[in-house]
User: What shape does this take?
Amino acid sequence: MKKAYLFIFGLLLFGNTEILAQVNLIQNVSARKTVLLDGVWDSQVDVVGVGSLARFGLIQDRKPTKFTYNGDNPRNTELVEQDMDVAEKINVPGDWNTQKEKLFLYEGNLWYRKKFAVIPQANKRYFLYFGAVNYEATVYLNGIKLGQHKGGFTPFQFEITKELKSGENKLLVNANNTRGEDNIPTKIADWWNYGGITRSVYLIEEPETFIADYFIQLEKGKLSEIKGWVKMSGSQKAQAVNVEIPELGLKQSVQTDTTGYAVINFSSKKIQHWTPQTPKLYDVTISSANDNVKDKIGFRTIETRGTEILLNGKPIFLKGAAIHEEAPFRTGRCYSEGDARTLLTWAKELGSNYIRLAHYPHNEVMTRMADEMGLLVWSEVPIYWNVKFEKPEVYANAENQLLENISRDKNRASIILWSVANETNESEPRLQFLKKLLEKTKSIDPTRLTTAALLPKEGKGEFSLDDPLGEFVDVMGCNEYIGWYTLPAELASSIKWTSKYQKPLIISEFGAEAVAGLHGKPDEIWTEEYQNRIFENQVKMLNNISFLQGTSVWVLMDFRSPLRLLPIKQDFFNRKGIVSEKGIKKMAFYTLKTWYETK
Ligand code: GCB
Assistant: This one.
């Protein structure tokens, strides 16, 4: 009896067939006709997942009625053991960990509910678009399951034209941030597992046939050829679409085919190219009979030549910092313009022309601001450490996250590098997995470079890069911690760096920890002086690597991590920031700034 009960319970909790969210995301959501569903939502913690059980009525939003006797099946309908109307409140967007003290360490299910009123118009289509939910989201509208999404850092959407009611609608979301071996990322990662609806939620209204997506960038290596495509969605897929860049006097009318797709192709010698010094963005308008979308797009090329990286045909050295999506001052996941501006302004003050958005896709505000402020971007998916490379379902999840990331950000001039992995151990399944992802990346975006953060082989007086994956990336990333995890800092300058690949190298991480404001001798660990000594020695070494074309310090700002336990010094913070989470710049910040001034 007990067994049967457990079985049914299990079925109800986990037995639902997955309806995955659609990957064909609407491009440039903030320029659409939307209702922002951000704000105060109802919330209910659910440690074991009982909310999915019919008898709790959460999904159906069942309210107590009265005790009923219907023949053989007496039923106490007054007993409903949940009530979202009187549940606690929570802000969206925002992680739950930093909103409620009792949820600081919580990993599991949390239900979110939002009521909203709308009067749907005839001949319009409606979509729900989530900027991100960590890690798994199951979404219901008016008691109907719309689907599920896995992956905590990329957007997903559901079309709700049929499910949307005139008047009040009830949107229910189960967010679950339980860590798992087969997830991307896996169980152990060096950042806080902030749970919940961490980015904005939009209700989008579109005409029946609308401009769903577009890709408008310079053709690889061609400084005056703008190339790309537009994609219509709806019943009238074949129609005329205009693409205009008024400032350049460019206008093209294309005819989409029966799949809604058309290639666009412009030529102009007048383009002012996007660079970190002159981050020129052009107003671009895409219009059809019933729809119109405006964007701001920059035009630049990015290539490699031997061991060089070329921006608009000219060699560039990437001076940068890696950044976690962690909010300055208040900690927690960041999502706002203010958060992005603070972080990117610090990067600029450091003298950066480049940032590594680690270790997962950051919110769209960040990449759009990088476009505006002139920061080149390394964008990555959380394929981090011990991923289960041999499992097809893990690959499917990784590819989906990558596609969602590229889909959202493919029009950002700032993004020059798509990274597919960070510090993954060499093995045949891993090589095949990452090779396939790299091929996929190139097939959908041939305009940008690919990379991965690799590990060096440490030999006597020599660090070499011979990871077989090196053959398949355009640019090699490499993380090294000389002075902190390996070798005394002073040995750095004598290390000879070699590679069997004739490719550019970015030291994608180097660094050391220090508690901001803690001073002492250069050999006293945790002091700013100790961290700074490591930086001074790193700089000597970095100056000697002939194929080095960029660095991203690990890391711009101290960030929360479950791996950093040392009381008083760490207290769950990785202290490798050159700025503390309270905004205090450490000595190493200035050492690096001085070095960047020479590059
Ligand atoms: C690494 C990881 C990064 C960690 C860092 C560290 O190699 O890529 O996620 O936070 O080292 O601080 O150890």
The pocket of GCB is lined by residues 190, 359, 422-423, 479, 509, 554, 574, 576 (CB under 6 Å). Confidence is low (pLDDT under 50) at residues 1-22.
